[in-house]
Amino acid sequence: MARELFVTPSCWRVNFNHYFPRPRFSPLISPPRHTLCAPSSISRFSASLAMDDSKAGSIKEMPLGLDTTMEEEYASQSKLLQEFISISNIDKAWIFKPDDGTGSQAMFSLSQPNILANKRRKFIVSSYISNESKSSVNFRWTPFPIEMAGVSTIVPSPSGSKLLVIRNPENESPSKFEIWGPSQLEKEFHIPQSVHGSVYADGWFEGVSWNFDETLIAYVAEEPSPSKPTFNDLGYKKGGSTEKDCGSWKGQGEWEEDWGETYAGKRQPALFVINTNSGEVQAVKGIEKSLSVGQVVWAPSTKGAHQYLVFVGWSYDTRKLGIKYCYNRPCALYAVRAPLYESETKGLELKDSSTEDVPVFNLTQQITSAFFPRFSPDGKFLVFLSARSSVDSGAHSATDSLHRIDWPTDVKLWPSAKIVDVIPVVMCAEDGCLPGLYCSSFLSNPWLLDGCTMIISSIWSSSQVILSVNVLSGEVLRISPADSNFSWNVLTLDGDNIVAVSSSPVDVPQIKYGYIVEEATKAAAWSWLDVPSPIFKCSEKVISLLSPLQFSIMKIPVKDVSDSLTKGASKPFEAIFVSSCCKESDACNPLIVVLHGGPHSVSISSFSKSLAFLSSIGYNLLIVNYRGSLGFGEEALQSLPGKVGSQDVSDVLTAIDHVIDKGLASPSKIAVLGGSHGGFLSTHLIGQAPDKFVAAAVRNPVCNLALMVGTTDIPDWCYVEACGSKGKENFTEAPPAELLTLFHSKSPISHLSKVKTPTIFLLGAQDLRVPVSNGLQYARALREKGVEVKVIVFPNDVHGIERPQSHFESFLNIGVWFRKYCK
Ligand SMILES: CC(=O)N[C@@H](C)C(=O)N[C@@H](C)C(=O)O
User: Fold this and answer.
1) Of residues 487, 579, 601, 676, which has the active-site annotation?
2) Nearest 5 degrees, angle CA 608-CA 613-CA 616?
3) Distance, CA 326 to ligand 1 centroid (Å)?
4) How many of the other CB atoms lie within 10 Å of CB of 777?
5) N or C: which end of the chain has fewer CB within 10 A?
6) Coil, strand or helix at 555
């Protein structure tokens, strides 16, 4: 579940299958290993042509799996794909306010794939913001970005006078902490591996927080490596050895569970505090060994009392089940006393100075999930998000709720403090009303100047919108324009103004500046200005290819509504339709049906570089948010578990019929593209509707639940999605034979005998979520029965296939594959 969604730093829940390349820094990948579709006669022909081309007289070999016709296509598509892929993303932004009250300074952290190096390049661009009047704003940009090579994360201090830069080691070397002032490096500290490993910068466990007077920074890092047994020629060496000596060697010791997909080999996340003056690092004491911690913030401090930290803790029963994309892992907010530093305590008489038995308080015992803690600016309340629907139902993601704790000044009252519901889980909303909360991140400071209104981004049907939430009254307003089908995301706040970004499937992102219009009706209370910026600059070619494209969001009525369906599950679902408007003839472009994974994820109406590339080379897109997707209320979402492979398949077929009936698609030119659960749907579709699709492309598809259940990091997912609400209770690591039969019967592999559609498989060999065996088994079985198949295995990729070269090669092959079969 990955994505290329712009400007949504830790947004795991949206579109993540195709559109969210998160940086992965590892060595070059090798060329495709498996290519099962090139007839040898064509290969010989290609080789001879290549020979004629060669002025040097050497024989050029055609890369594995290519023929000359395809090579032409490769060459032309690859140039264009590069132009799309090189458009920058905004990962984060901050505002700095000078003391003299003049204007503000914005800093944007951007990234761009460096395909040659197979890494993401990170850089910074700044802009001076001046408000000439309430309704006009001017951003003056620095002429060039500055590269931030080797930087894992940057975090400005609350006053904006210091910048923490963390560089994680690539090997066994120390983590580097740099503290920068306005014009120079002020401090640099190297934290050895014996203290802790890499600092978490994963967008989930990640948490780096400055205290109020900027003397301490709390953060989450990997625990130091446990010692491993040492052996030498006499056998086991008692007491081990810290030094490397050539006469001894290290064994492995006991295997430790990790959090699965993307966390392979990562050690337990633990809490640390560094003193910004001395560089002294202390591990936070008192936290149970088994608790994984993250998202730390400082609790409001009281003069003369200890400082406390609030963090999220995840516990587990017998094993850690995969956590990436899985909000159904129980978690709670905890408070713990921060370590004491001598310099901090000088001259202070601490009220509770004992260092023994440091207590850890669970603040959210009444609820099964609590994360993204944010204190109000006055420290009077603590707000957090909860995925309790997800935890309680077992669905890996579901509708969120927002809560508040009025923060007691007396530490002893913390554990019993009441949790107030601010936004409850929405089961089924009336048309035009909030469908529920679906958030993948909160700003570190989400507060307007009144101190009680939070600005957040959330999914609303097929779009992302910006909401203002008054956490005292519970009033929620959709403040991004309600008449816009574009997706909007808040980047940072400038006092009571908002710096945001807005985009659509056919419009590259545009920076927006939002301000409150006085004395206006509530519905029109915010106005948005366009901010010209150099950030999303793209080539003339890209601009000209995007300009004739248009998109709409279609409502698709549910087929076969019955009394057994809830109201929410009987309401229309949605699909985003992208097409070319200026057609020379009446013939429709070929259609690609695009299916997100999860299944409890969503394709939003934002710009996706890879999908825009496919649209620009002449495909219409039908991006289906089948029932079960996020953004449509809890009843619609919960209608899918237990019915995967039938209800979702039926919704996609209904959406296809809808566009055919409207004359927007030709029934003989339809292809399907999906990853993970989207690949499950795609392979189901080519089996259940074998005459419908001329080509398919699948990325790490789930093809056989009976195989997946024994190999994935989330076997519980197979139970919940195949069996519904019973699945959670019945989960066991050793599924009985009858259940394996059920899993098989609900899987695409059970329809394999009917498949005819030429299918390309893009597989990540390091995928722990849907291990490569799932795609390979299905591809080999198709090949065995004579269906055209191409398989590309990326040896160093995980589930998302996001490493720049792999992402590029995947979409280039998808483009060429579809061109071959969809004329
Ligand atoms: C929860 C989860 O990871 N499910 C996978 C089977 C899946 O479909 N993943 C989605 C999110 C993806 O798009 O990769």
Assistant:
1) 676
2) 120
3) 9
4) 15
5) C
6) strand
